[in-house]
């Protein structure tokens, strides 16, 4: 607790008093826990503190008579209930979050004076909220969509919010177009459909008329839009920001989050099924990982462009529809973020957290990206109606660990009780406190970068923002063949859902043909449209033809198969020793092994022992696991061969290119299923087979199997 001070004895924050140390940083991590620990051993009371004797019956005139208005206990309870909901976010309504910390790898003072990036000993608490964009609060986690990746750093110098996405560009270049874009992508106004997806007329109408969206749309049609896990996504700050060091030297930067779990996705068929089989797949995956100690980790990196190099690229750094290819400017890692604590209460934390790109600290500043500039206004504005007024910074999850003394007062839901008479500045009654802190090299007051602006007031888009296709082309050309096929299929699926043929044609002829003619032709063929012969605009030749950093096939991560779910399919007659061997072998790689049976009841091993299962194959269908193995035991294999549920499980896992292994006697089961061994479909449960399985799982899926899997029914 801060020591109590009289007004006169208070010192300026700049003088170092009130500066939070590690102890109160840790207190932030605990603070929400304190707020909730009132349930055990406590009497049930009203909000006014009155003990409640009967929580089962309303006060009535006779046991069969009408209810009485004077029942303040029932009225308080129902009134509170009637107002339990707050408006969901206009976009990014569906989300989940976690607490954790950020730690710098070293002293990055050459880049920034932001304290949390200077001291490798410093633990900065963070809260992260991941989200989809289109769907409402109750929509599916695995829909094709962009994912929000918003991080609140509770730094000693104030909160820094890095409110990014899992894709490095955006659909539009200017904030004034955001309501148009959102109205187009959201469920259509006349029928409130579709929930959670962009496969509908208004979205494609808009993007086919707005070529600046081409780059982001191809990302949204790629595998990045169907992540396997929130733990397996990159994050991007999208806009160019500035970092400023103690000497006042500014560098342009793009922020990146690199996951140690690698970047991995599910297949489209899988994503759709998951949305039904487990609507909560991503939030469950994150929660379970943290609960089981598999703390997800990301490295925070920056691409740094010195001020002098601002104009040296083929594109404008201020254009949010452009990346800086990593081959041109590599990512320098600054530190790591670890998520290690689940929220205690979803509403209090995940729902009430309020991010704003305008929450920055000394050493960080904005660029003039016109999309970022608009966001600086929008986020606080939206909290006013969502969280009910301007005091949302007092909600526990939003409170900074840094002190926040000022003369702002009152307004709805004010929590702080301000003492004293002087709520203005200058004042002499209160010794002039709280006082400004002059800007300084370190610990100074916030100072905006002294950028020289000499311009006319205009409503214009810079000419340097006019190329909309070269980076979309770079993206497509940087994909593996497999990824390209997925992109073609995604456009074909989505446009196939568009009812108006002229919208389909416009997207193919005026957008896709300018990205790549083969892409346009393939999509056109799937839609039964003629293939375009040429694009409609002259696309500038981009010097860089391939950017390997864009293909997630090149982003396997650093932790192997840690935390991956491997199912062992068991039935009566399974060889217990084989189950033990496999479990130990996979657990040695820190994978999670799950025993799945024909039902939730235990199975009997070949030597008569009871074996508990984690779930039934119906309760945990194949779309929820990363790989599977059928342990030894002839009778168990026969039972699986006679079970429609098991056969479907195996065929579906095969179709979704999952690594699979079967004990030697599994040959018969494979014949029944009409499947052949391949690089990731292995027979035998010896060490060699297990190691091959692990090697394939590290690559996520058996990509070579895709053609063979086409023949398997979905
Ligand atoms: Fe947002 N955005 N956005 N956005 N955005 C919101 O803020 C907005 C943009 C992003 O988990 C809203 O608190 C405008 C880009 C995330 O709570 C709203 C523009 C990027 C989240 C809003 C953009 C984002 C939001 C809705 C164009 C990636 C979820 C509720 C100028 C860099 C944050 C809220 C969370 C949420 C406005 C564009 C990411 C309405 C006006 C670009 C991750 O204020």
Describe this structure in words.
- By secondary structure, the protein is of the alpha/beta class.
- The protein folds into four domains: 27 residues, no CATH class; 314 residues, Catalase core domain (Catalase HpII,  Chain A, domain 1), CATH 2.40.180; 87 residues, Catalase, four-helical domain (Hemocyanin, N-terminal domain, Up-down Bundle), CATH 1.20.1370; 145 residues, Class I glutamine amidotransferase (GATase) domain (Rossmann fold, 3-Layer(aba) Sandwich).
- Helix content is 28%, strand content 14%.
- It is built from 19 helices and 18 strands.
- Strands 1, 2, 3, 4, 5, 6, 7, 8, 9 and 10 form a ten-stranded antiparallel beta sheet that branches. A six-stranded parallel beta sheet has the order 15-12-11-16-17-18, sandwiched between helices. A two-stranded antiparallel sheet has the order 13-14.
- A hairpin with a 5-residue loop joins strand 6 and strand 7.
- Helix 3 packs antiparallel against helix 4 and helix 5 runs parallel beside helix 10.
- The site of CIS-heme D hydroxychlorin gamma-spirolactone 17R, 18S has 25 residues, from strand 2, strand 3, strand 4 and helix 9.
């Amino acid at each position: 607790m801060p020591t109590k001070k009289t007004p006169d004895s208070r010192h300026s924050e700049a003088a170092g008093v009130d500066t939070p140390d590690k102890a109160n940083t840790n207190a932030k991590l605990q603070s929400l826990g304190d707020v909730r620990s009132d349930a055990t051993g406590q009497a049930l009371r009203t909000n006014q503190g009155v003990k409640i004797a009967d929580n089962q019956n309303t006060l009535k005139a006779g046991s069969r008579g009408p209810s009485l208005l004077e029942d303040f206990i029932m009225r308080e309870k129902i009134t509170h209930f009637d107002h339990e909901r707050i408006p969901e976010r206009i976009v990014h309504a569906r989300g989940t979050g976690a607490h954790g910390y950020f730690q710098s790898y070293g002293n990055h003072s050459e880049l920034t004076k932001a304290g949390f990036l200077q001291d490798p000993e410093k633990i900065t608490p963070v809260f992260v909220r991941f989200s989809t964009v289109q769907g409402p609060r109750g929509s599916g986690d695995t829909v094709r969509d962009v994912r929000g990746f918003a991080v609140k750093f509770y730094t000693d110098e104030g909160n820094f919010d890095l409110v990014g996405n899992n894709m490095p560009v955006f659909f539009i270049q200017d904030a004034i177009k955001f309501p148009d874009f959102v109205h187009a992508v959201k469920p259509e106004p006349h029928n409130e459909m579709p929930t959670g997806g962009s496969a509908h007329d208004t979205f494609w109408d808009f993007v086919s008329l707005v070529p600046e969206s081409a780059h982001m749309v191809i990302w949204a049609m790629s595998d990045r839009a169907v992540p396997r896990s929130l733990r397996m996504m990159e994050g991007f700050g999208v806009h160019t920001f500035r970092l400023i060091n103690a000497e006042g030297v500014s560098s342009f930067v793009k922020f990146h989050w690199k996951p140690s779990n690698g970047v991995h996705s599910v297949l489209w068929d899988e994503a759709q099924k998951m949305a039904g089989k487990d609507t909560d797949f991503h939030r469950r995956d994150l929660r379970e990982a943290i609960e089981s100690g598999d703390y997800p980790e990301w490295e925070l990196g920056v691409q740094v462009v010195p001020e002098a190099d601002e104009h040296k690229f083929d594109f404008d750094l201020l254009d949010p529809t452009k990346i800086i290819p990593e081959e041109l400017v590599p990512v320098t890692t600054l530190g790591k973020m670890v998520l290690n604590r689940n929220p205690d209460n979803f509403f209090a934390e995940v729902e009430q957290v309020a991010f704003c790109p305008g929450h920055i600290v000394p050493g960080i500043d904005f660029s003039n990206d016109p999309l970022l500039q608009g966001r600086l206004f929008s986020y606080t504005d939206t909290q006013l109606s969502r969280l009910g007024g301007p005091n949302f910074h007092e909600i526990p999850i939003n409170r900074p660990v840094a002190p926040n003394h000022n003369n702002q007062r009152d307004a709805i839901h004010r929590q702080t009780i301000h003492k004293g008479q002087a709520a203005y500045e200058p004042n002499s009654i209160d010794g002039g406190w709280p006082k400004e802190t002059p800007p300084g090299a370190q610990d100074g007051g916030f100072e905006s970068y002294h950028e020289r602006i000499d311009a006319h007031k205009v409503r214009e888009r810079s000419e340097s923002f006019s190329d909309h296709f070269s980076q979309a082309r770079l993206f497509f050309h940087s994909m593996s063949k497999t990824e390209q096929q997925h992109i073609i299929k995604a456009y074909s699926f989505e446009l196939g859902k568009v009812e108006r043929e002229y919208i389909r044609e416009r997207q193919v002829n005026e957008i896709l043909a300018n990205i790549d003619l083969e892409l346009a032709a393939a999509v056109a063929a799937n839609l039964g449209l003629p293939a375009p012969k040429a694009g409609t605009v002259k696309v500038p030749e981009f010097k860089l033809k391939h950017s390997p950093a864009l293909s997630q096939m090149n982003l396997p991560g650093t932790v192997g198969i840690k935390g991956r779910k491997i199912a062992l399919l068991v039935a009566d007659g399974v060889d217990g020793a084989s189950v033990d061997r496999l479990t130990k072998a996979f657990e040695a790689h820190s994978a999670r092994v799950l025993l799945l049976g024909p039902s939730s009841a235990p199975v009997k091993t070949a030597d008569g022992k009871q074996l508990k299962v984690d779930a039934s194959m119906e309760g945990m269908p194949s779309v929820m696991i990363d790989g599977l193995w059928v342990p030894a035991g002839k009778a168990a294999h026969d039972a699986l061969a006679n079970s429609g549920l098991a056969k479907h499980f195996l065929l579906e896992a095969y179709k979704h290119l999952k690594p699979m292994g079967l004990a030697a006697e599994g040959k018969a089961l494979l014949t029944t299923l009409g499947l052949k061994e391949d690089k990731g479909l292995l027979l035998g449960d010896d060490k060699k087979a297990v190691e091959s399985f692990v090697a394939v799982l590290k690559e996520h899926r058996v990509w070579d199997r895709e053609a063979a899997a086409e023949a398997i029914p979905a």
